[in-house]
Recover the amino acids of this structure.
């Protein structure tokens, strides 16, 4: 086995098309890999797609991974996202987390209807605009904590899709009505997006987020961070689709990753 293969190892199968990478597959535990496979992992310069199952153990052991442990963490947890965004003082709509029945009973003392209720996990389609008390208590009972956010009328929602600290595309949906609607590619370098593009790239570098999508919304005459998620497998752009895992393979072939 030649040195390029030893330097680059993948667990999940997204890079099986890439000759510079040896893919081992995902096992129930790290102890389930053969001794020679564990030796490859120990000697690898970088381990690709380690999955959430293994990324934190590998990160704790000092291994470089792609995606980074931070990418896995923050695109999976709204609670982690809110803590990070607050620490970095990025603009987020007023938001609180409510644990247990006593705290949830105070929601309408802190927020007016309509409001947005969200799962603590950053799961697609697990956020709702709530207009009635009946719907609020029904949704709040599903999660502990439940995350409550003020409702802002948004004229635009733009998701910036980023890989290896570079933004590859901007996908827009039509404000609040597009909360779960289709995305349309827009010009990433349009002057309207200059401020959020710069803020996003600074966020990526500071937080070591190398494989993530950051969503922004425009309302009340300013841009707000709405959340983070895993990038789509296929990224639509004005110049054509970018296939995420093929793009990562091209970065590896070029020696960038």
């Amino acid at each position: 086995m030649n040195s390029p293969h030893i330097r680059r190892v993948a667990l999940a199968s997204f890079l099986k098309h890439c000759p510079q990478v040896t893919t081992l597959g995902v096992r129930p535990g790290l102890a389930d890999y053969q001794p020679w496979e564990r030796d490859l992992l120990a000697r690898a310069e970088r381990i690709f797609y380690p999955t959430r199952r293994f990324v934190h153990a590998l990160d704790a052991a000092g291994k470089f991974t792609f995606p980074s442990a931070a990418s896995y963490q923050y695109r999976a947890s709204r609670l982690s996202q809110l803590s990070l965004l607050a620490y970095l003082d990025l603009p987020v709509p007023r938001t609180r987390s409510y644990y247990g029945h006593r705290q949830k009973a105070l929601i309408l003392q802190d927020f007016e209807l309509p409001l947005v209720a969200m799962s603590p996990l950053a799961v697609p389609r697990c956020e709702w605009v709530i207009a009635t008390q009946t719907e609020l208590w029904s949704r709040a009972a599903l999660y502990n904590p439940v995350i409550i956010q003020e409702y802002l009328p948004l004229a635009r929602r733009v998701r910036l899709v980023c890989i290896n600290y570079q933004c590859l595309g901007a996908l827009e949906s039509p404000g609040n009505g597009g909360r779960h609607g289709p995305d349309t590619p827009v010009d990433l370098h349009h002057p309207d997006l200059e401020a959020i593009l710069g803020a996003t790239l600074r966020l990526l570098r500071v937080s070591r987020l190398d494989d993530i999508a950051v969503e922004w919304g425009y309302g009340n005459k300013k841009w707000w961070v709405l959340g983070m998620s895993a990038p789509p497998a296929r990224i639509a752009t004005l110049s054509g689709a970018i296939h995420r895992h093929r793009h990562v393979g091209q970065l590896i072939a070029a020696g960038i990753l």
